């Protein structure tokens, strides 16, 4: 059994998961096709209390990310070479057809994590990803409010966003962009967007350190646009009670949702009978220049990168605020060098 029964769903088997990925195969290929994709695998299924491994050295996790294609994959499975921040490379799954997702499901894959690039150019993203993550004290309704403000801002700048539930309490907004920007530029565009949203909605934060984020705020995770960072792919299952799905929606439909967990392995195939809300996403690609202009105009400078990234030029100190010794730092957050 992959998922235990809940008040929303019966117990779910591996066969049920395979049938789900068969039913959603066409929109899955549309959303993930030609993209390097990591697999989030739970070989023994998922139960409350199980934990996702934090990295390749963490042997205690019940689930893990499979970034390199496993040995023994069928000949029809295609790959693409990607480069990690460390400079190392790997051959990663590059989905082409619905059967690819069923093959992955047989190994316990529940969630697919696609890169924001295509096989034809793995160094220039064609997608800006806006990850709205409600913090402690915030709700899905808070994410809906911020998503509506984000939609309005994007439209003012001449961009079109496509929304989906995260499969938990958050919301993801994807914007198809011209594939001519670096990962760093796309990240800066997300920071520019986040800073403008902070001015428009006091409930938005771009603070990297969790303890600095106000209770009840919605965090815009700008680092999800970096190399080797990815959000749960559209139509993916999530390792949560009731097998919820990261579900694409029209903006009108998103505004009406009360419980995102109502969109799950059991209900989403019927939901899709009304059509794929993201079907037209590839019809247009937008310039990031308006968002990069916000990055240039709004004060704040560089923000922190994830801890596994090399230290970057202009990045603030990687010291949690609670661990800073006050006299070692100036008013701008820079370490004061000791005088010899």
UniProtKB/TrEMBL annotation:
Compositional bias (Basic and acidic residues): 324-340
One Pfam family hit: LigD_Prim-Pol
Keywords recorded for this protein, A-Z: Ligase
Domain called DNA ligase D polymerase: residue spans: 14-278
Domain of life: Bacteria
Any GO molecular function: ligase activity
Segments for region (Disordered): 302-340
Keyword Ligase in record: yes
The name this protein goes by in its record: DNA ligase D-like protein (Predicted polymerase)
Organism: Naumannella halotolerans
């Amino acid at each position: 059994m992959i998922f235990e029964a809940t008040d929303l769903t019966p117990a779910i088997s591996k066969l049920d998961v395979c049938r789900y990925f068969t039913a959603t195969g066409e929109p899955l290929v549309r959303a993930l096709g030609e993209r390097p994709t990591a697999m989030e695998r739970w070989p023994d299924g998922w139960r409350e209390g199980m934990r996702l491994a934090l990295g390749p050295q963490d042997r205690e996790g019940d689930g893990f990310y499979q970034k390199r294609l496993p040995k023994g994959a069928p000949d029809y499975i295609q790959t693409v070479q990607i480069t990690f921040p460390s400079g190392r490379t790997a051959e990663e799954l590059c989905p082409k057809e619905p059967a690819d997702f069923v093959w992955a499901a047989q190994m316990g894959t529940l969630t697919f994590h696609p890169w924001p690039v295509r096989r034809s150019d793995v160094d220039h993203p064609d997608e800006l990803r806006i990850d709205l993550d409600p913090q402690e004290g915030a709700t899905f309704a808070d994410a809906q409010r911020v998503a509506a403000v984000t939609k309005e801002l994007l439209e003012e700048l001449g961009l079109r966003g496509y929304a989906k539930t995260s499969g938990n309490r958050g919301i993801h907004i994807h914007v198809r962009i011209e594939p001519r920007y670096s990962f760093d530029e796309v990240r800066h565009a997300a920071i520019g967007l986040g800073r403008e949203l902070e001015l428009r909605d006091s409930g938005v934060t771009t603070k990297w350190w969790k303890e600095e984020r106000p209770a009840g705020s919605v965090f815009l995770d700008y680092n999800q646009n970096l190399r080797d960072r990815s959000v749960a792919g559209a139509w993916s299952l999530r390792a949560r009670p009731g097998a919820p799905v990261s579900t694409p929606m029209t903006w009108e439909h998103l505004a009406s949702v009360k419980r995102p967990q109502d969109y799950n392995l059991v209900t989403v195939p019927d939901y899709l009978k009304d059509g794929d809300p993201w079907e037209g996403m590839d019809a247009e690609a937008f310039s990031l220049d308006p968002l990069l202009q916000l990055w240039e105009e709004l004060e704040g400078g560089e923000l922190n990168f994830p801890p596994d990234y090399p230290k970057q030029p202009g990045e603030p100190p990687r010291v949690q605020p609670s661990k800073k010794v006050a006299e070692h730092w100036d008013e701008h957050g820079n370490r004061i060098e000791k005088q010899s």
